[in-house]
Amino acid sequence: MDTHDAPSDARPVLEGPDIARVLTRIAHEIVERAKGADDVVLLGIPTRGVFLARRIADKLEQITERKVPCGSLDITMYRDDLRMHPPRALARTEIPGDGIDGKLVVLVDDVLFSGRTIRAALDALNDIGRPRAVQLAVLVDRGHRELPIRADYVGKNLPTSLRETVKVQLAEEDGRDTVLLGAKPDAQ
Amino acid sequence: MQRHLISAADLTRDDAVLILDTAEEMARVADRPIKKLPTLRGRTIVNLFFEDSTRTRISFEAAEKRLSADVINFTAKGSSVSKGESLKDTAQTLEAMGVDAVVIRHGASGAPYRLANSGWIDAVVVNAGDGTHQHPTQALLDAFTMRRRLIGPDAGLGQDLDGRRITIVGDVLHSRVARSNVDLLHTLGAEVTLVAPPTLLPVGVEAWPCEVSYDLDSTLTKSDAVMMLRVQRERMNAAFFPTEREYSRRYGLDGDRMARMPEHAVVMHPGPMVRGMEITAEVADSDRCTVVEQVANGVSIRMAVLYLLLGGNEPAVTHPRTEEK
Amino acid sequence: MSKTLIRGAKVLGGEPQDVLIDGGTIAEVGAGLSAEGAEVVEADGKVLLPGLVDLHTHLREPGREDSETVLTGTRAAASGGYTTVFAMANTFPVADTAGVVEQVWRLGKEHGYCDVQPIGAVTVGLDGRKLAELGAMHESAAGVTVFSDDGKCVHDAVIMRRALEYVKAFGGVIAQHAQEPRLTEGAQMNEGIVSAELGLGGWPAVAEESIIARDVLLAEHVGSRVHICHLSTAGSVEIVRWAKSRGIAVTAEVTPHHLLLTDELVRTYNPVYKVNPPLRTERDVMALREALADGTIDIVATDHAPHPHEDKDCEWAAAAMGMVGLETALSVVQETMVDTGLLDWAGVADRMSVKPAQIGQATGHGRPVSAGEPANLTLVDTAYRGLVEPAGFASRSRNTPYEGRELPGRVTHTWLRGKATLVDGKLT
Fold first, then answer.
1. E strand or H helix at A56, and its extent?
2. Residues B311, A77: C-beta atoms closer than 8 Å
3. What φ, ψ does residue C8 adopt, rounded to 5°?
4. Same structural domain, B45 and B97
5. What is the CATH number of the domain that holds C29?
6. Is B204 a residue whose pLDDT tops 90?
7. What are phi and psi of A120, to 5 degrees?
8. How many domains in chain C?
9. How many of the other CB atoms lie within 10 Å of CB of C419?
């Protein structure tokens, strides 16, 4: 997983206003594809996916003038690389009150990379309920998929090399909004 | 870095808070339609019980199964320390079957420590109660219960029990629960007072990080939680106290005494309760008594401990105690 | 018989001298002795002591030959510098008849590594109820003079009184294992701060001290003498000191392990530290050292207690009590008493040879290193320091608490009536 400390040589590929704009676009796309977003439930993947989901939910509310259920889905205990690292601290899973059965769940994450996080998220969802459909929204798709997974809503497609690293910083956690592209520390 | 959970005294404050926080997330799994996580899939855990304890065993078993571990129950009934019964041989036999962790309950104090430190086996060892020594998961679930009741499930995240006043009443001498709780609660910043007749306090208790009192009434009014320990009737025959009636009168918790506790204070009991001895039915069945919650919390705590010890390539819990050479 | 010249040995730690052994006797002690016709041992500044005498050894034969036999136990004794061991009575069958004590005595004689003086049981089967035939054991070929139920306490005050009285008839002595049984039910280790924390049954000091207090008063009352086995507490020292000041005929022993080890070691739950009486506190250790130095405690005795590996390779509560000690005793005494300045080598000879031989009436042992005396001798390389390696023990058992510990001193030679039983650290 990318760390969120910006490397010194990182350059921004998305700035605050860009991020706001793409999230607005994603919200509109969701309304359009979900035909009004009546049954949409947004689930952010901790940590930054949760903040993005909340921002999209706010925008959906502005568009549809209805509250859109929004929660979080921690995938730690579903990861396929648990035994390669020390156990990680768990993050919060918060499923909105009406649950996800029969709903259109939109998973929200910051960066789509190997696809393994989303695979774990799908497993986690499976233990919580049975959605009508599951879609995926990401701020950045940097490629290099290792599983047959694709995003339904993409803020920015960012072709990268495996020697590069992508950092998403969000005001809620990092004090500012930006997406940085830099060289991997061990590749320098 | 040790890989086992043998004593509550081995846990640092940060370790303990991490376990409590993890348990808080585990508790939420119990509210889901599918109360199961794939986390320990393919790991085998044996519950090696040399002492009868259905409660503790099924609590561990529920925790193990919720984490998708393969569970083997091994109950060596009544063979506590009898000659010819070798803990080493039993453990090695089980390990040969590919066991990743051993949850052990044993009548001999120190048996889990021996199992973890003698080079007999490589598996992770979790102490589920040894003799009159330690019962660390019990102390953790008690601290978890206190944090939830006194601070709140969400408000408690990341918090310890700094400044909370906890009174533990009863047969401290024979209680691994008391030892574990004194160690852990002290680590978490709580102020612990032990209350018991002098016969049921160990010589050497003066070195424990707690206060000692022989008088229940004077400590009740300043307690945030009162933990009643089970007092076995057999103790009477060994002259630890004269009669059941006298014990109840001096050290039992009844409705009158409970009424003198602060309004927010809770009554705890590790179970099984001896109603009419250390606790009256009125108190045991009241809203302030957390016995049933403690049972539910036990599963969450044991899930957290097993996840943190077995969920990665190395344990997330550090231990200061040095290993035996 | 052959002659041996020990050249340049510090006799009792004094100035280097030569000692000539002729047959079973010391022929001459002095400077520049002639080596003609003698095998020469270059002592090169090593310390020469009278052969050590252990008043408290468990040889396990008959009955527990899996842990020790008279042969392996006496070989261990010779390795440790001993020329006499007193074999405790808690064998299977118990040494409570003339037959059993004669068997043990004869086995010792046959093997020839060390004199074996059997100790007789005080009560039949060590059960504390009925006096064993003390007189018969005394009159047997083994000539028993020391009686003990060691491992168990003669707890009944009347039985103890009778035993003390009865042995006066032939100058015997009762060696008491002081342990009040009711106060030590379920006891696993010294009662105190460590036991409270570890949750192991406490073994209070008072369980030892109350029996010692009773028995010195009984000895005074009946005008007999009493020997106290393995003193382990500061309080016991005080009682013995008081009794001696009153002129009561009491003698006392301390084990090497109680001079060095404390109950802090039990924190490892390693049963190699499980012993009866239990390891006590630092304060007790210091009091015992001081008492051994000032003569309140008369002797060091090993309480050599061999156990097979499986009896220690288990959980604490299931483990057997006891430690082997014959092969490390002198090193531990050097570490705790000599290197600390509490005792000189003459003092060591007194506490480990002269006095134990006197208490046990082991004739020919514990004698001065001078011409005309039996050549029971031990040569010690006191400058040596090394790690204790149980694999090299002559004892059949390895349950030493000192494995891997660095200790000073090494016995290089032992002579039993002029015959070398240990040469350059190797048994003959």
1. helix A48-64
2. yes
3. 75, 40
4. yes
5. 2.30.40.10
6. yes
7. -65, -40
8. 2
9. 18
Residue B317 lies in a domain: no
Q: Which two tokens stand for residue C67?
A: 């842990």
Number of domains forming the structure of chain B: 2
φ, ψ for residue C238 (rounded to 5)? -60, -40
Residue C364: which region, alpha, beta or left (left: phi > 0; alpha: psi -120 to 50)?
left
At B316, the pLDDT band (50, 70, 90 cuts) reads: low
Q: Evaluate if residue A188 carries a pLDDT over 70.
A: no
C 90-129 residues inside an 8 A Cβ radius of B: none
Predicted confidence at residue C140, as pLDDT, reads 97
* Length in residues, chain A: 188
Q: pLDDT class for B83, splitting at 50, 70, 90?
A: very low
Q: Looking at the structure, tell me whether residues B218 and B143 fall in a common domain.
A: yes
Strand, coil or helix: C409:
strand
ipTM of the complex: 0.91
Same domain, C164 and C194: yes
B272-291: average pLDDT? 93
Determine the Cα–Cα distance for residues B57 and B39; give it in Å rounded to an integer.
20
DSSP symbol at A102: T
Q: Nearest C-alpha of chain C: how many angstroms from B33? A: 42
Active site residue C215: no
pLDDT at B85 over 90: no
Q: Which amino acid is at C40?
A: V
Task: List domains and CATH numbers for chain A.
Answer: 11-83+90-187 (3.40.50.2020)
Q: Do A87 and B33 touch (CB under 8 A)?
A: no
Asked if residue B221 has pLDDT above 90, the reply is: yes
How many residues make up chain B in this entry?
325
What is the average per-residue pLDDT within C113-141?
A: 97
**Span A1-21, pLDDT tens digits:** 444 555 567 899 999 999 999
- Do B268 and B158 lie in a common domain? yes
Find the domain containing B88 and state its range.
8-132+295-310
Output phi, psi for B93, to 5 deg.
-60, -45
- Indicate if the pLDDT at residue B287 is higher than 80: yes
Residue A81 C-alpha, separation from nearest chain B C-alpha, in angstroms: 9
**How close B110 gets to chain A, by Cα (Å)?**
27
Cβ–Cβ of B325/C191 closer than 8 Å? Answer: no
Q: Comparing C-alpha atoms, which of C334, C367, C371 is closest to residue C50? A: C367
**Prior bond to B22 cis, omega within 30?**
no
- Note the pLDDT of residue B34: 87
> CB of B132 within 8 Å of any CB in chain C?
yes
What confidence score (pLDDT) does residue B207 get? 96
Cβ-based contacts of B81 with chain C (< 8 Å): 315, 317-318
Q: What is the residue-wise DSSP string for B144-168? A: HHHHHHHT-TTTTTT---TT-EEEE
Task: Tell me if C398 is assigned to some domain.
Answer: no
Question: Which of C22, C150, C284, C303 does the annotation list as catalytic?
Answer: C303
- H/E run at residue C52: strand C52-57
Residues C30 and C156 in one domain: no
Q: What is the mean pLDDT of residues A76-92?
A: 91
Q: Which domain holds residue C130?
A: 51-360
Average pLDDT on B57-63 reads: 97
Strands (E), C80-193: 82-87, 115-118, 146-147, 173-176, 189-190
Q: Give percent of chain B above pLDDT 70.
A: 94
Measure the CA–CA gap between A53 and A36, rounded to whole angstroms: 17
Q: Which residue of B has its CA nearest to C265?
A: B324
Note whether residue B163 is domain-resident: yes
Strand, helix or coil for residue B196: coil
Question: Which of C325, C360, C395 is at the close of a domain?
Answer: C360
Are B213 and B146 in the same domain? yes
Phi, psi of C380 (to 5 degrees): -120, 130
CB-neighbour burial class of residue B26 (10 A; exposed 0-12, middle 13-18, buried 19+): buried
Closest C-alpha among B234, B235, B224, B274 to residue B252: B274
Chain C within 8 Å of B134 (Cβ-Cβ)?
Answer: yes
